[in-house]
Structure to design on (225 residues):
């Protein structure tokens, strides 16, 4: 089946720094990708919808200047957490829309 | 408002026993319903989905789910659980093609020998 990868799988960064997470569709092209955030023992919350070649659409309450999304190609979307703070620590999951939504394995971000 | 409720945070069943995971939804129109499974360190895998037609849906790994409009439910079932089924299960509701998918809080399944 279709595969979506994320890199890195886990990252630790210091407060105030920025970190970039990549999401790639490995064997199909995805015009649309989604970014989710999952808190421990909680559900996935949609953060934004990323469309190739255009600006991302952010969900209410998600700071677009803090969570920068770039979807420059049909196989790659990136999420950059800018000026990270400990409360940004979470599990970030992307998905790519092919014949259905295919989810990446997630990235564990820890901000110290 | 659209929402998905999974009443059970965690469930423990014996290997070989039957399983039912509950899911209730609130949605303004005809829902598109999904069940996903998430194993530790892995992404979500689609088990099955319901868009229309037969209300009993067969999925992968021997799972099935039944859509009951009158009860706003979409419970997941498996007649005989295997140890490898231990994972987190998410019920979700969305619109066409899975856009704007809303997930339930998840149910953690433990399987005991």
């Amino acid at each position: 089946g279709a595969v979506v990868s994320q890199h890195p799988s886990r990252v630790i960064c210091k407060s105030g720094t920025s970190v970039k997470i990549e999401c790639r569709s490995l064997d199909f092209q995805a015009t649309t990708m989604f970014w989710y955030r999952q808190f421990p023992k909680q559900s996935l919350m949609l953060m934004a919808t990323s469309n190739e070649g255009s600006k991302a659409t952010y969900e209410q309450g998600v700071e677009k200047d803090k969570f920068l999304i770039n979807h420059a190609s049909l196989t790659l979307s990136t999420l950059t957490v800018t000026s990270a703070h400990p409360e940004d620590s979470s599990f970030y999951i992307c998905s790519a829309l092919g014949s259905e939504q295919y989810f990446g394995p997630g990235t564990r971000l820890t901000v110290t | 408002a659209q929402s998905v409720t999974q009443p059970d945070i965690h469930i423990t069943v014996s290997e070989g026993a039957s399983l039912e995971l509950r899911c209730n939804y609130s949605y303004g129109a005809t829902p598109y319903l999904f069940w996903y499974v998430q194993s530790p360190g892995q992404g979500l895998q689609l088990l099955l989905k319901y868009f229309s037609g037969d209300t009993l849906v067969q999925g992968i790994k021997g799972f099935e789910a039944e859509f009951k409009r009158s009860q706003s439910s979409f419970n997941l079932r498996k007649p005989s659980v295997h140890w490898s089924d231990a994972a987190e299960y998410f019920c979700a509701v969305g619109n066409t093609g899975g856009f704007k998918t809303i997930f339930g809080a998840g149910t953690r399944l433990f399987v005991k020998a």
